[in-house]
Every structure is written in structure tokens, then in C-alpha cells.
Write a structure and sequence with these properties.
Elements (H helix, E strand, L loop, with lengths): L7 H8 L14 E7 L4 H14 L4 E5 L2 H13 L8 E3 L11 E5 L9 E4 L5 H4 L4 E7 L3 H16 L3 E5 L6
Parallel strand pairs: 1-6, 1-7, 2-4, 2-5, 3-4, 5-6
């Protein structure tokens, strides 16, 4: 079950008061490390997409399969009654549609897309191709938390700006 949209958990995104969260043009790469739980990740992914879409940023959503792409596709249509986010599922080799949000199964970059929101852990090399990326830290999965710590360290060593978004301050 997802947190309610009127909870303090979601108020952070709607408020527009995110300290350290910059949605404008960046001169360097920024990776947001957003804490969540496995049960809440997909809803939170939609909130991040919604926030970047409101900032008029083209967004690529990384998933691991066509099945997962279709799950996110359905969720983006239904997660918020008051929100409409034009999006499409793009398969490798297909011509990109004109939608500002593309869901892609696998690590391939679509030209012109500045933001990457990861439904699954992505390689640092792939994330560094974007101006901004969002990586989810799973609070309730110890192995994924360790992998996120390692990614954080590698990202900092690579020169990316890393921003920790605590669980209680999520969009």
C-alpha cells in the first residue's frame, strides 16, 4: 500500500521547497540518492518523474524489462488523479516518440534526455551520461543499501554531485 498523497511524506515534493534539489540547467552531473522502501518505490518514482516534468525536463525512466516498462506505464497513468504526464515505452532500436517521458528497458541513452530516473540500480557509467539521475536506496533491503553506499562513493570519486534525500523528505 502506498502512503497517502496528503501525508507529510509526499508534501515535500508538492511544496517546491526541496533544499539542495535543483531542477534547472546544471553545469555538472547530480545524482539524487532517495531513500524509500520496496513497497513505496514505484509511487515515489512517479513523484520524481512528475516533479522533473513540471520543470520541463525530458526524462528517461530506466527499467529492466518490457514487462516492468508496461507496469510503470500503467502506474504513470493512474498514480495521481490530478496529474497528467505524457509518456511512452521505447524499445531499443525504435524511433523515439515526441513524449517528454520515455520508459526504456535497458541501459541505452535516448538523445536529448537530460534526466534519468532509475527503477533499478544502473551503472555509474550510464548515469553519468545525464545531467541528473535519481537512484533509490531501499531502506528495507540490506544488500541494496550496501550497493547504494558503494555507488555513492564511486559517484563522488567520479566528480558527480551526490545529494542524499532522506526518507521523510521525499517528493
Amino acid at each position: 500500500m502506498f502512503a497517502t498523497f496528503d501525508s507529510p511524506y509526499w508534501a515535500f515534493l508538492r511544496s517546491g521547497r526541496q533544499e539542495g534539489l535543483t531542477f534547472g540547467k546544471e553545469s555538472h552531473m547530480v545524482i539524487y540518492f532517495a531513500e524509500t522502501t520496496v513497497a513505496e518505490q514505484r509511487e515515489l518514482l512517479c513523484r520524481w518523474v512528475e516533479r522533473f516534468y513540471a520543470g520541463r525536463k525530458p526524462i528517461q525512466v530506466l527499467v529492466d524489462s518490457t514487462y516492468e516498462a508496461q507496469s510503470i506505464d500503467k502506474l504513470l497513468w493512474t498514480f495521481s488523479q490530478g496529474s497528467f504526464i505524457p509518456h511512452s515505452v521505447l524499445n531499443p532500436g525504435g524511433a523515439p516518440p515526441d513524449d517528454p517521458v520515455l520508459i526504456t528497458p535497458g541501459e541505452f541513452q535516448v538523445e536529448g534526455f537530460e534526466v534519468l530516473v532509475c527503477d533499478l540500480p544502473a551503472s555509474l557509467e550510464f548515469m553519468m551520461k545525464f545531467e541528473t539521475a535519481v537512484h533509490f536506496i531501499m531502506r528495507d533491503n540490506e544488500q541494496q543499501r550496501r550497493e547504494s553506499r558503494n555507488l555513492w562513493q564511486k559517484a563522488r570519486e567520479s566528480g558527480a554531485d551526490t545529494v542524499h534525500v532522506p526518507y521523510r523528505n521525499q517528493p
